[in-house]
Design a protein that fits this description.
With 199 residues, this protein is of the alpha+beta class. It has two helices and ten strands. It has one domain: Porin. The protein has an eight-stranded antiparallel beta barrel.
């Protein structure tokens, strides 16, 4: 519920600002891509092995799809303010040991704000840097002797982001962005490769 209020709040701000500022200085964009996320599955498998005294095998995703919608406001020639909302798919890890299995899944969402510096206002290279406030939602399941036990957890926090890419004259965009500390967790970083459109 808290996340829904944040989304409504951010969009209200974007709409309010866009009604005051010049329409030609504002662009809306959509990015879709793949986020490489390390959830520490190898470390978790070793911890389970140490506790149980058994050999543990692990299989895990290296990342998930990523979607982002954003508004970009031109502050001056070549300088922009970018405000966006993002969501990832689930990243899952499964662990197997004698008599038991365990799995964990995580997804992330949040809002980010960054300054964007462009080589050219119509086409060319760009770099960006800023901050994000994000939440990681986690689900875990442990099955022992046919009985499954479930748990959920959520972590929220802030981090920084840096990235760059290329804007094409027809509004297409390709880039890469690094998000640090997803959900405020220093071990949860993400490299994002994306393709998108500016309208």
């Amino acid at each position: 519920m808290k996340k829904n209020y944040l989304i409504i709040f951010v969009f209200s701000i974007i709409v309010s600002i866009s009604s005051i500022l010049k329409a030609e200085d504002i662009s809306l964009g959509v990015d879709l891509g793949f986020g490489f996320i390390d959830i520490g599955a190898d470390d978790t498998a070793q911890t389970i092995a140490n506790i149980s005294g058994s050999t543990v095998t692990a299989s895990y995703d290296t990342g998930a799809w990523f979607g982002r919608i954003y508004g970009e406001y031109k502050i001056a020639d070549g300088t922009y303010l970018d405000i966006g909302l993002f969501q990832t798919g689930d990243v899952t890890a499964k662990y197997t040991l004698s008599g038991a299995t365990a799995s964990e899944s995580y997804s992330a969402n949040g809002v980010d704000v960054s300054a964007v510096i462009k080589e050219n206002d119509t086409e060319g290279l760009f770099v960006k840097g800023g901050i994000h406030s994000s939440t990681i939602d986690g689900n875990a399941n442990v099955t022992i002797s046919g009985t499954t036990y479930a748990a959920q957890a959520t972590a929220s926090g802030t981090g920084f982001l840096v990235g760059g890419g290329y804007d094409y004259a027809d509004g297409q965009r390709a880039g890469i962005t690094y998000y640090s500390n997803l959900g405020g967790d220093s071990a949860a970083d993400m490299w994002l490769i994306y393709y998108g459109f500016l309208f």
